[in-house]
Amino acid sequence: MKKLSLVFAAIFSALMILSLTPPQQPQAATDDSLARIQQKGTLIMGNSPNYPPYEFTTNVNGKEKIVGMDIEIGKQIAKDLGVKLVVKKMDFDSLLVALETGKVDMILSGFSPTAERKQHVDFSDTYYTAKQDIIVLKTDKGYYQSRTSFNNKKVGAVVGSIAYDLIKQQMPGATPVGMQNASDLVLALKAHKIDGIVKDSASAVAYANADTSLAAIDGHFTVSGSESGNAIALPKGSLALQTAINKSIAKIKQKDLINKQFLPAAAKYISTGAETHSMWHYWTYFAKGVGYTIGISFVALIVGALLGALLAFVRLGSITWLKTLANAYVAFVRGTPLMVQVMFIYFGLGMFYNISAIVAGTLAVGLNSAAYVSEIFRGGIEAIAPGQSEAARSLGLSQKDTMRYVVFPQALTAIWPALGNEFISLIKETSIVSIIGVADLIYQLRIVQADTYRGVLPITIAMVLYFIMTYSLSKVLKHFEKKMHHANA
What is its main location (predicted)? Predict the structure, then answer.
């Protein structure tokens, strides 16, 4: 039976890999990429809003707003196409997967058209070209002169960015450190965990101007060809859409809108955000994050408890093929990271059915919890002495009634502390859904960090909020535990 479970787990793994691999699209006789967008009336733009002045979030009258140069470019393109711009937020290293699986129509997020990326997607003309700088602490500015000054030092960059590749290629004496977003890198720099951050010059100067403890120096990197600029990533074969977008880019360049309008507008928001350091100003962000976290946890808890109990009963039942499938499911889910499961449901299953980020995240957390809840239920039920069931059956109770009135109540009392731990862990595990753009507490924390340029205080507030949620739940669970013990006394 164990061998069969392993076989099914292997089959599940193979299916997951196949689903995550974008199918080869046949060459269409006619390219409908532009017509399809105009027909639906929206242009969905993939974006990672933590890269000032290209794209970042700010607080405008208590409401979150995504602003920046790339956002303005996206609006101009959508206007020229006669459609509405829809910005879909997610981690930077998830953008390519989102484009390849049809979650977004284009990527406009400080993207550089590298040779490796061109193998998977098409690119528009370059809309902006800038050199790469290195952000350092102002107190260290005299020590570091260029990229050659970082031998035996740790240098950070956003994972998946051209800056990260430049560290590996042109800073051989430095140790590259990759992180998911710019605010984490700045926090690491201030905490002396890294010695520098490689970023696009416009972004580096923006951070340095907004934070008096930082400085930007010229990295003197050598970047040739189109890789030195930023372009818009598009699905392979979308020539009609590419042509239309290139016309918009040409108009933007001709009127010099980036330097005359888009960058100055972004600088205004950066200045405003840098001056707004009161955490109370961002209470709506944290409240929204707590709301999403509690909502996701509650739904995932119900899914996990019901499905987990069902799996436990199936695994304890007598139907062989159902037991095999249930064992394979539990083995597979427990043997793969929750992050991978979230991405699989959102991107993999999203290739066949358009599932929203919050539904995908909630479903992934619930399905993951079900595997662990199943083990808790199974262990608790099997721990009940067989004599209990035998005595109940001898009194004329059916197998169903024996489980319902004798075995399960005793098992539930015994496993309640373990279930409580799983439910408390569930609240903390929901933080993983931020990678696909769900506005949970972690996602809101990053927004506040990016907007205020403060790293530790938002983290401290998030820690306190998580503690309040988990402590409150633990007290509720403790109350019911006492009632169950009192009832069984």
Answer: membrane
Peptide bond before residue 22 is cis, with ω within 30 degrees of 0:
no
User: Mind listing the pLDDT tens digit for each residue in 315-331?
Assistant: 988 889 999 999 999 99
Asked, for residue 22, whether it belongs to a domain, the answer is no
Rounded CA gap, 432 and 88, in Å?
17
Full domain range(s) for residue 82: 31-129+229-275
> Do 341 and 357 sit in the same domain of this protein?
yes
Secondary structure (3-state) at 217 = strand
Tokens of 188: 């690491």
Residue 23 resides in a domain: no
Mapped onto helix, strand or coil, the DSSP state of residue 176 is: strand
Q: What is the pLDDT of residues 418-466, one digit of tens each?
A: 888 889 999 988 988 888 878 888 888 887 877 776 778 888 999 999 9
Structure-block tokens of residue 278: 């009161």
**CA separation for the pair 295, 59 (Å, rounded):** 23
Residue 472 lies in a domain: yes
Burial of 293 (0-12, 13-18, 19+ CB in 10 A): buried
Residues in the chain: 489
| Whether residues 320 and 270 fall in one domain | no
pTM confidence score: 0.70
Are residues 352 and 234 part of one domain?
A: no
Per-residue exposure over 76-102, b if at least 16 CB sit within 10 Å of its own CB, e if not: bbbeebebebebbbbbbbbbbbbbbbe
Is 318 in the same domain as 444? yes
| 298, 403: one domain | yes
Between CA 253 and CA 251 the distance in angstroms is 5
Please state, as a whole number, how many other Cβ atoms lie within 10 Å of the Cβ of residue 236: 16
- CA R_g for the chain: 26
Query: Mapping DSSP to helix (H, G, I), strand (E, B) and coil, where does residue 489 land?
Result: coil
Name the β-bridge partners of 59.
Answer: 64
Return the SS3 of 28.
Answer: coil
20 pLDDT band, cuts 50/70/90, is very low
Distance of alpha carbon 127 from alpha carbon 450, whole angstroms: 24
Total number of domains constituting the chain: 3
Q: Rounded CA gap, 429 and 426, in Å?
A: 5
Q: Which residues pair with 158 in a beta bridge?
A: 179
How many beta carbons lie within 10 A of that of residue 337, not counting itself?
10
- Residues in contact with 411: Cβ distance below 8 Å, sequence separation at least 6, in sequence order: 377, 380, 381, 383, 384
Neighbours of 361 (CB within 10 A): 26
Amino acid at 247: K
Look up residue 289 and give its DSSP letter: H
